[in-house]
């Protein structure tokens, strides 16, 4: 919520336009991986475990989706079906993978929240009847 108060799942689901049942799955995974914690009872909800500026998008995506590798052979433990030196595209995929990881690692949850605030302000400023 930006003020450190727990956010209820219905509010999160509404903001993100996703079903609460799907959100429950995401929150469970994020709890297991230490990104969020849940507070029970009146005024309860979900909180980040660290400051948004300390959490990068790469780690959240990897928690929820797995590897960001564009091809299976670059995933941890993955192997190329071709003989070593036969895959002429390998360097392209490696560059894409490394650049994707670098870029997602450079984006914090605070960056995303700031972008969302800016977009809401822009939408409000452009509203006309």
Structure, explained:
The protein has two domains: 1-49, Arc Repressor Mutant, subunit A (Orthogonal Bundle), CATH 1.10.10.10; 51-129, no CATH class. Strands 1-2 form a two-stranded antiparallel sheet. The longest helix has 17 residues, at 90-106. The chain has helices at residues 9-16, 20-32, 57-65, 90-106, 109-125, and strands spanning 36-39, 45-48. The chain is mainly α.
Percentage beta strand: 5-15%
Number of strands: 2
Q: What count of helical segments does DSSP give? A: 5
> What is the approximate shape?
elongated
DSSP helix fraction: 40-55%
N→C terminal distance: 30 Å
Radius of gyration: 19 Å
**Largest pleated sheet:** 2 strands, antiparallel
Uncertain residue segments: none
Widest sheet, order of strands: 1-2
Estimate nothing, just give the exact number of structural domains.
Answer: 2
The mean pLDDT is 90
Question: Which structural class do the helices and strands define?
Answer: mainly alpha
Encode the helix/strand succession as letters: HHEEHHH
Brief synopsis:
With 129 residues, the protein is mainly α. It folds into two domains: 1-49, Arc Repressor Mutant, subunit A (Orthogonal Bundle); 51-129, no CATH class. The chain is built from five helices and two strands.
Overview features:
2 domains; elongated; two-stranded antiparallel sheet; mainly alpha; Arc Repressor Mutant, subunit A; 129 residues; 50% helix; 5 helices; single chain
């Amino acid at each position: 919520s930006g003020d450190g108060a727990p956010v209820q799942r219905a509010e999160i689901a509404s903001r993100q336009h996703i079903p609460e049942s799907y959100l429950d799955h995401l929150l469970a995974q994020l709890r297991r991986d230490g990104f969020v914690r849940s507070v029970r009872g009146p005024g309860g909800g979900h909180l980040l475990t660290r400051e948004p500026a300390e959490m990068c998008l790469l780690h959240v995506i990897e928690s929820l989706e797995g590897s960001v590798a564009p091809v299976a052979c670059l995933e941890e433990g993955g192997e190329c079906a071709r003989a070593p030196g036969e895959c002429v595209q390998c360097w392209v995929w490696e560059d894409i993978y490394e650049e994707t990881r670098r870029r997602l690692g450079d984006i914090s949850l605070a960056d995303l929240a700031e972008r969302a605030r800016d977009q809401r302000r822009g939408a409000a400023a452009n509203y006309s009847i």
